[in-house]
Specification:
Layout (H helix, E strand, L loop, with lengths): L2 H42 L9 H14 L17 H10 L5 H27 L1 H13 L1 H7 L5 H21 L2 H17 L6 H11 L7 H16 L2 H5 L2 H9 L6 H9 L7 H16 L18
Helix pairs in contact: 1-4, 1-5, 2-3, 4-5, 4-6, 4-7, 7-8, 8-10
């Protein structure tokens, strides 16, 4: 083959490569659009035709109690079951008015987020077409559709578990420690969605143990674990349990700067009542130091919320 033949075949090969890239982009985009459209349809068609089941009623009731919805907050205890990430998020919507449809719409949004994160994970690992096909499979997956149509905690747990897998894949590819730290945060959100999500730690440990090409530093693992712990211990349940202290602070004279009020709250032993100083010190000191564990049961053996 002479030089003239090379000059002819090279542009042809380049054009063919560009055509293949264009075809892949068109195919993957089309599949992704179909996945999103069908996913939204399957999750919203006659969404509120049937009333809440028992679990949905419990989680929505928790959200209503957090938001202080009249008529419901007295019927449902806040700390009844599971961590409160999804319930707390739903309670924010209830501030615009209580409707049972809010909870299922939020579940749909979370389910579609899982479809998108599946696409990004597959795209990063195997390319656009693989990511789009994976998103299509999740969009049609019967179990994923069912839990995305109900106020259940499996949907948020699946979403943040997928985010955890994505961040781990990014860490495994570039070995940037920021992605390992992000995995710790995402793992914390997975647990805060539903406590059974903690089982993902086994998969993370297996991946890090078997991937010998990873140059792991002990300090990075410790920092990632600390981030997971901080995210877990500073979940919505922690801040909700702070509300009595916040209410007491709000009742004090507004003319004083908040920092001075907090200082007085913590050092009020000689200047205020016994109940005020002891209660203030107990609540504020306990909550702000974020103890790693708390007593698992009250004196009457009712479980308390740790996270």
């Amino acid at each position: 083959m002479n030089q003239s033949d090379n000059e002819i075949t090279m542009p042809v090969a380049v054009d063919r490569h560009r055509a293949n890239i264009l075809n892949e982009a068109v195919i993957s985009t089309t599949v992704l659009v179909v996945a999103l459209a069908v996913g939204v349809f399957l999750r919203t068609w006659q969404l509120n035709a049937i009333g809440y089941n028992t679990d949905e009623a419990v989680y929505t009731g928790q959200a209503a109690a957090i938001a202080g919805v009249p008529g419901l907050s007295s019927l449902f205890p806040i700390f009844r079951a599971h961590p409160l990430l999804f319930q707390f998020t739903l309670s924010l919507l209830f501030h615009f008015g209580f409707q049972d449809l809010w909870g299922r719409l939020l579940a749909v949004l979370v389910g579609m987020g899982t479809v998108l994160m599946t696409y990004f994970t597959g795209k990063f690992l195997y390319g656009k077409t693989a990511g789009a096909l994976a998103a299509l499979f999740v969009a049609f997956m019967p179990y994923q559709v069912i839990v995305s149509r109900q106020v259940l905690l499996d949907g948020p747990m699946a979403l943040f578990a997928t985010v955890t897998l994505y961040t781990l894949a990014r860490y495994g590819h570039g070995q940037r420690r920021e992605w390992l730290y992000a995995s710790g945060a995402a793992m914390g959100l997975t647990f805060l969605s539903k406590e059974t999500g903690i089982l993902m730690l086994g998969a993370i440990y297996t991946f890090l143990a078997l991937a010998r090409e990873l140059r792991l530093r002990i300090i990075d693992i410790i920092i990632s674990a600390l981030i997971l712990l901080v995210v877990t211990l500073t979940g919505p349940g922690r801040w909700i349990s702070l509300r009595p202290a916040i209410s007491d602070l709000a009742a004090l004279p507004a003319a004083k700067p908040r920092l001075v009020i907090l200082f007085n709250y913590l050092t009020a032993g000689a200047r205020h009542s016994y109940a005020f100083s002891r209660r203030g010190r107990s609540v504020v000191a306990t909550q702000t130091t974020l103890l790693a564990g708390e007593i698992a049961f009250n004196l009457d053996h009712r479980p308390v919320c740790i996270f």
